[in-house]
Design brief:
Largest sheet of chain B: none
CATH superfamily of the largest domain in chain A: MetI-like
Order of helices and strands of chain A: HHHHHHHHHHHHHH
Oligomer: heterodimer
Protein name (chain B): Sulfate transport system permease protein CysW
Number of strands of chain A: 0
Number of helices of chain B: 15
CATH topology of chain B: MetI-like fold
Pfam families (chain B): BPD_transp_1
Largest sheet of chain A: none
Strand content of chain B: under 5%
Subcellular location (chain B): Cell inner membrane
Structural class of chain A: mainly alpha
Membrane topology (chain B): Multi-pass membrane protein
Largest interface: A-B, 99 and 101 residues
Subunit structure (chain B): The complex is composed of two ATP-binding proteins (CysA), two transmembrane proteins (CysT and CysW) and a solute-binding protein (CysP).
Number of domains of chain B: 1
Chain lengths: ~280, ~300
C-alpha cells in the first residue's frame, strides 16, 4: 500500500496524513466554503441585470463609499502611529514598555460591542472627550468622524504587530554603515530603515483596511446610522435582512466579499514580495 | 600586535564619544516619541477601557450587581458560555488536525489550504452570519427542508454556534501551523523508530511540544467566541432570555437607554478581555520559545 506512488505528496513515515487532511478539508468545506458558496450561488441566481441594479443602488454605493473612505482614513492613521509605536517598542527601553506592548492587543480581546458603547459614551456631546469637542464645533459621535474613531480602535494592532518583528530583525550594522558613510540620522531613517520596513508596513495597512471595511459591532453605536450619511455597508446588509430583502442583502454582501478576496490576494502578494526581497516577513 | 612586535609603546586612542550612538535618536526625540506613544495609546485604548468600568459603577455597586443577576442577563451569560463551550473545542480539534496535516507533510495545494484557513478573518462578521441565513433561513437553500422536519437553526442556538465557529475558525490553526513547521518532524520520527504507535507519538511527543501555543490559540479563540457580535447578531433573532448572548444583551440594554446595566454586562466582557490579555502576556513572557515559531526549538 505504501509502495504505491503518490505524486502529489512527498512520502513520510509519520501516520495520520489521510485522517488529518481529510478532516481538515471536510471541516473547512462544511463550515467555511459551502456557506460562502451559498452566497456566491445566491448572488449569481439574481441575474446580471438585477445584481447590477442592486449593487449600484445609490444607497448601496453611498454605504460602500463610506465604509471604504472611513476604513482608509483609519488604516492610514494606524499606519503612521503603528509604525511609530512599533519603533518605540522595539528600539527604546523605558518604564512601562512591557505594559504598553500588552495593551496593544486590547482591540483584539475587547468585544466590538463593548468598544462601541465605550467610545460612544466618550465622544457623545456630554461625554468625557465630546464635551471639549462640542464648543469647537467638532461632532464625532453620531457622525462619520465617529466611524473613523471606532475603526481606528479596532484596527490598531495590525500595523504594530506586522512591523514589530521585521523591525527587530533589521541589522543595526546597516544603520552603522550608513552613519559611517556620512548619512544623517534622517537620511538613514528614510533611505535605509523605511524601505526595509515598507512591505511589512503595507501588509499591516492592508490587514487593518480589510478589518476596518467589514467592521460592524463597534461602528453601529457611534455612527448615528443615517442613510447616505453615516450608514456603513455591513449595517445596510443587516437592514436589508431585517426587511426580508434577501436579494438586496446578498448583492451588498457579494460586492464586499469580492473586495475582501481582492485584498486577501494583495496581502498575499505583498508577503511573497517581502519574503523574496528581504527574506523575512510572515 | 604590530606595535608590540616592533617594540614601540602601544597607544590606544580612545574613540571620540559623541553624545549618542549613531544608530539612535537624540534623547529629546526619544522622550518625545515615547511620550507621544503613551498619549496616543492612553487616549485611544486605555480611556475607552476605563470608561466601561466607570459607567458600569455609576449607579453604585448594588445596581451593578442587580444588572448582572437579572434573569435575562444570566440567560445571556449562560448562552455565551454554552456557545463558547461548543465552538472553541470544535475549532481546537480542527486546528490540531490542520496543523498536523500542513506542518508534518508536504503536498500540493498546501499554500492554498493555508490561505483558505485564514479566509474567515477577511470576511465581514455580518457576511459570516448572512451566509448561514442564506443556507438555513426560511428562504434559504435548506430552509423548506429544515422547516418540514421541525429543525430550527436560524434564530436559534445552532445558528449562533455555527456563526461563532465561522468567525473563530482560524485562531488555533494559525498559532500551531508556524510553530509545528518550525519544529519539523524529527521528534516524531524518533518516537516512531523506537516503536511508539502513531497516536502515542502524537499524545506524548507532539502535544507536549506545542501545548503552550495551543493554549495561546484557544485563549484568543475563546475571547473572540464570547465577544462576537456582528455574525451572531444576524443569526440570533434577539429573543430575550433565549437567543441573546452577552454582547447582544449589551446592545439591547444600551438601545433601551439602560446605560448603567449595559455597561455592567459589558464590564464582564471587558474583564474577560483583560484576563485574556494578562494570561497571553504571561504565556509570551514565560514560554516565548514554546509559542513563537521564530525561536529555535
Amino acid at each position: 500500500m505504501r509502495g504505491r506512488a503518490r505524486t502529489w505528496r512527498k512520502r513520510s513515515v509519520l501516520p495520520g496524513f489521510g485522517l488529518s487532511l481529510g478532516f481538515t478539508i471536510a471541516y473547512l468545506g462544511l463550515v467555511v466554503l459551502v456557506p460562502l458558496a451559498a452566497l456566491v450561488i445566491k448572488s449569481a441566481g439574481l441575474g446580471a441585470a438585477e445584481f447590477w441594479r442592486l449593487a449600484t443602488d445609490p444607497r448601496t454605493l453611498a454605504a460602500l463609499r463610506l465604509s471604504f473612505g472611513t476604513a482608509l482614513v483609519a488604516a492610514t492613521i494606524n499606519a503612521v502611529f503603528g509604525a511609530l509605536i512599533a519603533w518605540v517598542l522595539v528600539r527604546y527601553r523605558f518604564f512601562g514598555r512591557r505594559f504598553l506592548d500588552a495593551v496593544i492587543d486590547l482591540p483584539f480581546a475587547l468585544p466590538t460591542a463593548v468598544a462601541g458603547i465605550a467610545l460612544t459614551s466618550l465622544y457623545a456631546p456630554n461625554g468625557w472627550v465630546g464635551q471639549f469637542l462640542q464648543p469647537l464645533g467638532l461632532k464625532v459621535a453620531y457622525a462619520p468622524a465617529g466611524i473613523v474613531v471606532a475603526l481606528t480602535f479596532v484596527s490598531l494592532p495590525f500595523v504594530v504587530r506586522t512591523v514589530e518583528p521585521v523591525l527587530a530583525e533589521i541589522d543595526r550594522e546597516l544603520e552603522e554603515a550608513a552613519a559611517t558613510l556620512g548619512a544623517s540620522r534622517a537620511q538613514t531613517m528614510f533611505k535605509v530603515i523605511v524601505p526595509a520596513l515598507l512591505p511589512a508596513l503595507l501588509t499591516g495597512f492592508a490587514l487593518a483596511l480589510a478589518r476596518a471595511v467589514g467592521e460592524y459591532g463597534s461602528v453601529i453605536f457611534i455612527a448615528g446610522n443615517i442613510p447616505y450619511v453615516s450608514e456603513i455597508a455591513p449595517l445596510l446588509i443587516v437592514i436589508r435582512l431585517e426587511e426580508f430583502d434577501y436579494a438586496g442583502a446578498t448583492a451588498v454582501a457579494a460586492v464586499m466579499l469580492a473586495i475582501a478576496f481582492v485584498m486577501l490576494f494583495v496581502i498575499n502578494l505583498l508577503q511573497a514580495w517581502s519574503r523574496r526581497r528581504f527574506g523575512y516577513g510572515s | 600586535m604590530a606595535a608590540e612586535l616592533s617594540g614601540a609603546p602601544l597607544r590606544i586612542s580612545r574613540p571620540v564619544r559623541r553624545g549618542r550612538s549613531a544608530t539612535t535618536e537624540a534623547p529629546a526625540v526619544r522622550v518625545a516619541l515615547v511620550g507621544l506613544v503613551f498619549v496616543f495609546l492612553g487616549f485611544f485604548l486605555m480611556l475607552p477601557l476605563v470608561a466601561v468600568f466607570v459607567e458600569a459603577l455609576r449607579g453604585g455597586i448594588s445596581a451593578y450587581l442587580a444588572a448582572i443577576v437579572e434573569p435575562d442577563a444570566l440567560a445571556a451569560i449562560r448562552l455565551t458560555l454554552i456557545v463558547a463551550a461548543i465552538a472553541v473545542p470544535a475549532n481546537m480539534v480542527f486546528g490540531v488536525a490542520a496543523a498536523w496535516a500542513v506542518a508534518k507533510f508536504e503536498f500540493k495545494g498546501k499554500s492554498l489550504l493555508v490561505t483558505l484557513i485564514d479566509l474567515p478573518f477577511s470576511v465581514s462578521p455580518v457576511i459570516s452570519g448572512l451566509v448561514y441565513v442564506l443556507l438555513f433561513g426560511a428562504q434559504g437553500f435548506f430552509g423548506p427542508f429544515l422547516d418540514a422536519h421541525g429543525v430550527e437553526i436560524i434564530f436559534a442556538v445552532p445558528g449562533i454556534v455555527l456563526a461563532t465557529i465561522f468567525v473563530t475558525f482560524p485562531f488555533v490553526a494559525r498559532e500551531l501551523i508556524p510553530l509545528m513547521q518550525e519544529q519539523g518532524s524529527g521528534d516524531e520520527e524518533a518516537a516512531l523508530s523506537l516503536g511508539a504507535s502513531g497516536f502515542t507519538t502524537f499524545l506524548l511527543v507532539t502535544l507536549p511540544n506545542v501545548k503552550w501555543a495551543l493554549l495561546y490559540g484557544v485563549l484568543l479563540c475563546n475571547a473572540r467566541a464570547m465577544g462576537e457580535f456582528g455574525a451572531v447578531s444576524v443569526v440570533s433573532g434577539h429573543i430575550r432570555g433565549l437567543t441573546n448572548t452577552m454582547p447582544l444583551h449589551v446592545e439591547i440594554l444600551y438601545n433601551e437607554y439602560s446605560f448603567a446595566a449595559a455597561f455592567a454586562v459589558a464590564s464582564l466582557l471587558a474583564l474577560l478581555a483583560l484576563f485574556t490579555l494578562a494570561l497571553k502576556t504571561f504565556l509570551e513572557w514565560r514560554f516565548a520559545g514554546a509559542i513563537a515559531a521564530e525561536r529555535a526549538h
